[in-house]
Model the fold of this input.
Amino acid sequence: MGVKENEAALMRAVDAWHSGDVNSYLELYAEGIKLHAGNYDFPNKAAVAAMYQGMFAATSEIHLNMLETFGQDEKLCARYALDARHTGKLMGIEPTGRQFSMIGITVMHFEGGKVVERWDIDNSSEVFAELRR
Done:
């Protein structure tokens, strides 16, 4: 598969995200996915699923916007913005009802149309610090 097919898989996942269908969103990832996000490592699909299910449970009005994508061969990079309202316990933070925006860049390595490894950097530390105030 190439960049266009991988971009299409990503956009199908984003569409599932917007419909609130976490399980369909997770179809983007291979069973053995390794997701590296700042100080956090998610060693498999079950751990990734738990993280996203927690995000959905702790937020409302959640929207994921792909601002830019580009790639080469089986690698795809995306610059994104995630906007949501904090309505449930998130990363140990009691609900604030406040809106937040998380921005980041992610590099995905695909095999057979599925993400097998993902490296992500975002401003979540700043977002969580602000929600704690």
Summary: Residues 70 and 105 are 11 Å apart (CA to CA). The chain has a mean pLDDT of 96.
